Amino acid sequence: MNLTVNIGKLKLKNPVMTASGTFGYGEEYSEFVDLNKLGAVVVKGLSLKPMEGNPSPRIYETPCGMLNAIGLQNVGVKEFLKTKLPYIRKFDTKLIVNIFGNTLYEYVKLSRIIDDAGADGIELNVSCPNIKKGGIFFGTDKKMLQKLLSKVRANVRNAVLITKLSPNVSYIQEFAKIAEECGSDAVSLINTIPGMAIDIKTRRPRIANITGGLSGPAIKPIAIRMVYETFRAVKIPVIGMGGIMNCADAIEFMLAGATAVAVGTANFVNPSATIDLINGIESFMAENNIPTVKELTGGMKI
Amino acid sequence: MSKYIRAKITENTPVNKGHNLLILSPDDIPQRSLPGQFYMIGTDFSYDPLLKRPFSIFRETSSGEGRELQFLYRIKGKGTKLLKEMRKGETVNVLGPLGNGYPMPDKNLTPVLIAGGIGIASLFPLAEKLSWSVHFFYGARTSDELLMLNKLKGLVKKELIISTDDGSEGTKGTVIDILDNFFTRHSSLVTRHLLYSCGPSPMLEAVSKFAAEKGIKGYISMEENMACGVGACLGCTVKTKKGYKRVCKEGPVFPIEEIVW
């Protein structure tokens, strides 16, 4: 059985990756997961300077999902290169670094540093709903996105470039097309969906940032629909995510058009969710006589 | 090392209205826990609730060849209401032990434990370990909410003072009143004591302020909404003098003077 998939020039041993922000820098889960078995590890969103993140409470559980407004707390690129990158490099898995900036210049500078440091992939976060500047503002304005991607593309030589798209737009496929035209090697979707919850007794918002991003099984049907729409619009690979809890969910995403999938909130529910998923996909392929996993991508019958 | 394992329920019985004692016998033996550490407990039969819930380890006992994990919990939200309905023989998923636990006191310091409500679950194993030397102050809103009193009476050799907001058991008032009274009696020896506290947030804030005023050192166990329990999601942070720190990883126990209220 062949589980390998290609994201641009990057060959993954299997289609299972981690979703940025749900797997720390890899080391947090190393007690529960053999990182060598993962297709790729996508680490927590990184910025040039360390960021302290949002005040608490930062998360709140809602039916079949959770809201979060972490605010991209991260160690900054200097510390990342010193301690986090060498750690994850000890494992036989691909490293994809999710990056974001407040300005176009910061995105370019950071992607260059990460490319030079030898990461296998760079995932451009242009879709975080929880920070005041940057993030989603690049991902929901077509001209801004075009400008950003062209500049970053010109500065990244070795790493594959993945654009992480926001679901907070009318037609996600239009943004995927821009990513493709500007030389993005792949798109990943969806980021969380902005949401809110209020405590009716205290009348205060459940999370300090007031709004947060919704993730988990609650958003899965939306994510699958968007993967499908994007798959039909572009030729570059689509990395699907949004509420994947088990291998059946992952296969559903692939049938809708995903080449690879990322596990996010499920890591919190079951720390070995990624491994269970890989094993599950393998069993599914064996039971259904599917020799190569690539066959599943876009395999939905209408 | 912490582990993610299946555990069979050997007991899940009410200790009073609103609180249960859960006893689990895990499939695999995780590393022995320290007082103040916690486990995440969840089921896998539904996505609602989705996340596991953190519970302080109340006791860890040997049973035959295996070990049993005991948790004392308050039935509060969706998760604990479902947990309450689970029966002996059913299984849950447990992740742990997690977090840092309470540091042991220096020999020349007298530990003073201050528990509020269900905070008893976290401080009980510490009292068990230090029983010969602790002063234990335990407060709740009403006598109905005081848990494991008899066990505690048998345990604490030095001094156990109970308080309730409505005076239905022990002294009428809060644990802060007891604390104030205690240190008035021991005013010359204030800094020879070390505080350990766990309970509702307003109580911890009051204990912290009191400690700051008197110049007493100590530790408090913090609580926040939690998703992963292993330091990855950064959801459970609290503000400290050294920036945001994760309750699940750097905590749940923090030096009392470190928390920014």
State the helix count of chain A: 9
Query: Helix- and strand-based class of chain A?
Result: alpha/beta
What's the CATH H-level superfamily name of chain A? Aldolase class I
Q: Describe the sheet with the most strands of chain B.
A: 7 strands, antiparallel
Count of DSSP-assigned helices of chain B: 5
How do the helices and strands follow one another from N- to C-terminus of chain A? Answer: EEEEEEHEHEHHEHEEEHEHEHH
Task: Tell me how many strands of chain A there are.
Answer: 14
> What is the CATH homologous superfamily assignment of the largest domain in chain B?
Nucleotide-binding domain of ferredoxin-NADP reductase (FNR) module
User: In CATH terms, what is the architecture of chain A?
Assistant: Alpha-Beta Barrel
Gross morphology of chain B is globular
Radius of gyration of chain B: 18 Å
Architecture per CATH nomenclature, i.e. the level-2 architecture of the largest domain in chain B:
3-Layer(aba) Sandwich
Number of domains of chain B: 2
> pLDDT under 50 segments of chain A (min length 5)?
none
Ends apart, CA distance between termini of chain A? 26 Å
* CATH level 1 class label of chain A: Alpha Beta
Radius of gyration of chain A: 18 Å
CATH fold category name of the largest domain in chain B: Rossmann fold
Q: What value does the average pLDDT of chain A take?
A: 95
From the spread of the alpha carbons, the general shape of chain A counts as globular
Could you explain the architecture of this structure?
The complex is a heterodimer of chains A (302) and B (261). Chain A has 302 residues and is an alpha/beta fold. Chain A has one domain: Aldolase class I (TIM Barrel). Chain A contains 9 helices and 14 strands. Chain A has helices at 76-88, 104-116, 136-139, 142-155, 172-181, 220-233, 247-256, 266-269, 273-287; strands at residues 5-7, 10-12, 16-18, 40-46, 59-62, 65-68, 94-99, 121-125, 160-164, 186-189, 193-196, 211-215, 238-240, 260-263. In chain A, the strands form 3 sheets. Chain A has an 8-stranded parallel beta sheet with strand order 3-14-13-10-9-8-7-4, covered by helices on one side. In chain A, strands 5-6-12-11 form a 4-stranded antiparallel beta sheet, with no helix packed on it. In chain A, α2 runs parallel beside α4 (142-155), α4 (142-155) packs parallel to α5 and α6 (220-233) runs parallel beside α7 (247-256). The longest helix of chain A has 15 residues, at 273-287. Chain A is globular, with a radius of gyration of 18 Å. The model of chain A has no long low-confidence stretch (mean pLDDT 95). Chain B has helices at residues 78-84, 120-129, 149-155, 175-185, 201-214, and strands spanning 3-16, 19-26, 38-42, 53-56, 59-63, 66-74, 91-98, 110-116, 135-140, 159-164, 171-172, 193-198, 217-221, 237-240, 243-246, 253-255. Chain B is built from 5 helices and 16 strands. Chain B has 2 domains: 3-98, Translation factors (Elongation Factor Tu (Ef-tu), domain 3, Beta Barrel); 110-258, Rossmann fold (3-Layer(aba) Sandwich), CATH 3.40.50.80. The longest helix of chain B is centred in the C-terminal third of the chain and has 14 residues, at 201-214. With 261 residues, chain B is of the alpha/beta class. The two termini of chain B are 32 Å apart. At the A-B interface, β5, β6 and α8 of A face β14 of B.
